[in-house]
Amino acid sequence: MDSKRKLRNSIVFIGGTLLGILLVLIPFDFNGAVDTVLFYYLKLFITHFNKPLRFIIMLLMVLSALGALYDNIAKPDWIRNNKLLKNILSTTPFYIANRILGALICVLVYFNIGPEFIISADTGSSMFGLATQLSILVPCMLLLQTLILECGAMEFLGELIGFIVKPIFKVSEMGAVSIISAWVGPGNAAILATQNLFEEGYYTVKEAAIIGSQFSTSSVGWIVLVSSVFGIMDHFATLFLVITLVGIIVAMVGVRIPPISKYPDTYVDGSLVSPVKKQENKDQSKLAFAYNSALQRADKVSIKNFTSKINNMLFYVIWLQPIIVCWGTLALIISMYTPILQWVSYPIELILKLTNVSEPAASASAIMSGFADNYLPVILGQNIMSVESRFIIAAMSILQIVFMSEIASLLTSTKVVKNFKDVLLVFVIRTFIALPFVILFAKILGLS
To answer: pTM of the predicted model, to two decimals?
Structure first.
């Protein structure tokens, strides 16, 4: 590699990675609002243009449902022979029904008609609002995350510290960046990025499932939001540290037991060896080899690395969002309007009673409601008086990771996790492993 090309690749690697980190990962204080640069300005845009955006998202939901239904009935060549259209419109009758229900919910909410239990602020209206926001945030995140994932940082960290993640989390060295990105960035974007890297041959079936189910949290910005609503912003740094430490423990256990441990270590083509060629280090220091690996990756970066993300961006908005709205609304209705939540939260209530946590019944219901949506624990727990209890609920709402309104449906829809049963098991396992450690840390911290 000549000196000019090496300089160009160094600029791409260092400049691109730093720009991506600056825009996507690092939270800043914007006049009291703590968020990443990307999210802060996108949220301003969403707030300013909320009304037209709501109409556009509703229209896309309806077109998604009608397009999928038309494709299933007519099977037109102009859809089936187009890779992009086939990817976002061709699906099974089950998911078509989900799209139709999701689109119907959005129409009812937008025009404020229909049963209150569907369109209320706690159910369909909440999901439609979330869909409007995420339809802007996630595609932009997917696009700009390319700077971090494809300019050489993955290869650099993979060679430099990847040896740590392999024995601890059972993923290859290449997974180091994906794990960090999934932990501090939006989980939905991380799952789609992981699926994309799996399809490119970087990860095995098991590795993709591990990253998607064990590390796809709701981003630093979301933790800030939860802390703010719960009135525990003065404990934010402590909360984030506890979430990280307990998250490492839970992941270490989760990757070694079913269902994730039973996933095959095979790549997208079914082989046991990655189709992505990996250069071996023969005579360089680890740092020098990591840097050179990054430069080789940066040498391949072009505009195509960004334009290729359009498929996944449209897939998220048109394919997944109606399903997320459907499943999320149904989960919220069950949580808010039936006694099922009280029944399933009873084991958690017993644990909280045994450890002398205040308001155990209300806290347990708030914790278990996280399976429906990760903001539901905040809604149900914000009136709890004890700081300790609110701290525990806040930590658990992040650590559970899997929730029906988004991550659970995303994991199953993209086949990162095989089926709903496995998603449910992951949620239960993470909840019961994480809870004792979160309670222990809360007690050590002496919160009251």
So the answer is: 0.75
